[in-house]
Design goal:
The two termini are 22 Å apart. It is globular, with a radius of gyration of 18 Å. It is built from no helices and eleven strands. The chain has one domain (3-194): monomeric porin ompg (Porin). By secondary structure, the protein is mainly beta. A hairpin with a 4-residue loop joins strand 9 (149-161) and strand 10 (166-177). It has strands at 3-9, 16-28, 41-57, 60-71, 76-92, 95-106, 114-126, 129-140, 149-161, 166-177, 184-194. 0% of the residues lie in helices and 71% in strands. Strands 1-2-3-4-5-6-7-8-9-10-11 form an eleven-stranded antiparallel sheet, with no helix packed on it.
């Protein structure tokens, strides 16, 4: 079960602030012997992220901010500073493409900055129905990692708009950490949300 609250504020001087507060559960096999996927463990995590976004032109923008990550199942707690470029474009009436290239630096450590690339598409094929696809490739360094790890995530979903700003999504989600056979899992997700 996961919970996400996302708030957006547009100050008079331009751009926007985006605050994300999220508590979620993510599967892992981190307690199993390497290469053996025996028992899934639900890791309980919390993230608090504040970003400032500013458009540049023609769909391009820049973003800067910070993220706090807490893992309540394993000792994995850290802060990140984030900056990079974003892009979003309506290719036609019902198709929107987006992408982001970010650099992330972990606070309080001497490790180098990491890359974070993401891309997404939303196709509204009916007035209240949309198909969604997202791709995420990034580097990370958790508390138990000896060196930076390469991770990749994909998600494919179907969204239905309901009344009064409500919507539901059913999606398939896949996470893989390369060269780490115990950090891989797939979910079928059911989401309910409301825009206000």
């Amino acid at each position: 079960m996961g919970h996400r609250l996302q708030l957006v504020a547009q100050p008079k001087f331009g751009g926007s602030f985006n605050l994300r507060i999220e508590y979620y559960t993510e599967g892992s096999y981190n307690a199993d012997p390497p290469g053996q996927l025996i028992r899934n463990i639900n890791e309980h995590k919390f993230e608090l992220q504040l970003m400032y976004n500013r458009p540049i032109g023609n769909g391009l923008g820049f973003t800067i901010g910070a993220l706090q990550h807490e893992n309540f199942t394993f000792p994995d707690h850290y802060y990140w500073y984030i900056a990079g470029l974003t892009w979003s474009k309506d290719m036609e009436k019902n198709l929107t493409l987006s992408a982001a290239i970010l650099g992330e630096k972990r606070s309080g450590s001497n490790v180098r900055a990491f890359y974070d690339f993401s891309a997404g598409a939303e196709w509204r094929f009916l007035p209240t129905w949309a198909a969604e696809a997202s791709f995420h490739r990034y580097e990370n360094l958790g508390a138990s990692d000896l060196e930076p790890t390469q991770k990749e995530e994909i998600e494919l979903g179907l969204q239905k708009d309901l009344e009064k700003g409500q919507y539901i999504v059913v999606s398939f989600f896949r996470h893989v950490q390369f060269e780490a056979p115990n950090d891989q899992f797939s979910f079928v997700k059911f989401k309910w949300g409301i825009r206000f």
